[in-house]
Amino acid sequence: MLIKSIYTLFLALLIALFVGFGIDSFYPAPKYPEYPSKPMMIENPENQKEQMILDQKYNEEHEKYQSEIKTYNKNVSIIILSLSIVILVISLTFLSKIKMISDGILMGGIFTTIYSLIRGTMSDSSIFRFLIITIGLIIALVLGYIKFIRGQKN
Question: Is pLDDT larger for residue 73 or for residue 93?
Answer without folding.
Answer: 73
